[in-house]
Amino acid sequence: MATITKKELIDRIADQFTCKRVLVKRIVQAFLDSIVSELASGNRLEFRDFGVFESRTRAAREAQNPKTMDKVRVPQKRTVKFKVGRVMKAHLDRSPVQFDEATGLAIDSSSRLGRRRAAHGDGALR
């Protein structure tokens, strides 16, 4: 499994759209800065079919140092939770994603509505 850096991703996008690398770098950095800013403000970010970023607070707890077996107080802290969206999950599972022709949105095949639409193939509800 390879590790893709931000620089490599920027280069790929710049090549794909024949844009200047500097412009793509500014856009990507502005996008990432916006995500960090919104999460720091306590907001939830939802990117349809990609996933959801959410800021969570972990409660303070008492842990144990495995080396010394001493009790250690771990303070409350904020962390980020990411929940995978349908399209990304489908790509990770390597299963094909079905799209509703009328709306263009991905159909969740695990839902009853998605199974009905997929079974009839026309997107109509029955």
What is the gist of this entry?
The protein is α+β, with helices and mostly antiparallel strands and 126 residues long.
Structural overview:
With 126 residues, the chain is of the alpha+beta class. It has 3 domains: 1-43; 45-83, Irregular (HU Protein, Chain A), CATH 4.10.520.10; 96-126, no CATH class. Helices cover 38% and strands 25% of the residues. It contains 4 helices and 7 strands. It has helices spanning 6-16, 21-40, 86-93, 112-120, and strands at residues 45-47, 51-58, 61-64, 71-74, 77-84, 98-99, 106-107. The chain has a 3-stranded antiparallel β-sheet with strand order 1-2-5. Strand 6 (98-99) and strand 7 form a beta hairpin. Helix 1 (6-16) crosses helix 2. The protein starts with 5 loop residues before the first helix and ends in a 6-residue tail after the last helix. The relative contact order is 0.09.
Q: Percent of residues in beta strands?
A: 15-25%
What is the global morphology? extended
* Whole-number mean pLDDT: 85
The number of strands is 7
For the biggest β-sheet, the strand order reads 1-2-5
Structural class designation: alpha+beta
Instruction: Pick out the low-confidence regions.
Output: 111-119, 122-126
Helical content class: 25-40%
Largest sheet: 3 strands, antiparallel
The figure for the number of domains is 3
